[in-house]
Amino acid sequence: MGIAVALVVTGLGVFAQGMAEPVPEQTATVTVGAGQSLWDVAHEYAPGADADAVVARIEQLNNLTDAVVVPGLPLTVPVDAPAGS
Q1: How far apart are CA 52 and CA 43, in angstroms?
Q2: Predicted local distance difference test score (pLDDT) of residue 7
Q3: Secretion signal: which residues (predicted)?
Q4: Is residue 12 part of a domain?
Q5: Residue 32 lies in a domain
Q6: What is the 3-state secondary structure (H, E, C) of the chain?
Q7: What total of structural domains would you count in the chain?
Q8: Residue 7 covered by a domain
Q9: What mean pLDDT is predicted for residues 8-21?
Q10: I need a surface site. Which of 9, 26, 40, 65 has the fewest CB within 10 A?
C-alpha cells in the first residue's frame, strides 16, 4: 500500500512539473524592490514558468553566486511576452 501511494504521489509531481511553462527566452532589465527575493522576481515577471528554473536562469544571466539580492540592484530577468505579441 505504501509503495502504491508513493508511486501516485511521484506521478502527480511529474504531472505538475509538466504543466509549468518553459523559462521565457525574452528578457528585460528590472530593479529589485525592497524585500524582494529572486523567487519574488521570478513569480512577478515569469508567472507561468517553473520558478526554480527562472531563479536559476536569473542567477546565470547576472553571474550571481547565490540568491541574495539587494534593493535597487538591476537584474536581467526572463519575462513572459505580453499578451498579443
Answers
A1: 10
A2: 44
A3: 1-20
A4: no
A5: yes
A6: CHHHHHHHHHHHHHHHHHHCECCCCCEEEEECCCCCCHHHHHHHHCCCECHHHHHHHHHHHCCCCCCCCCCCCEEEEECCCCCCC
A7: 1
A8: no
A9: 55
A10: 65
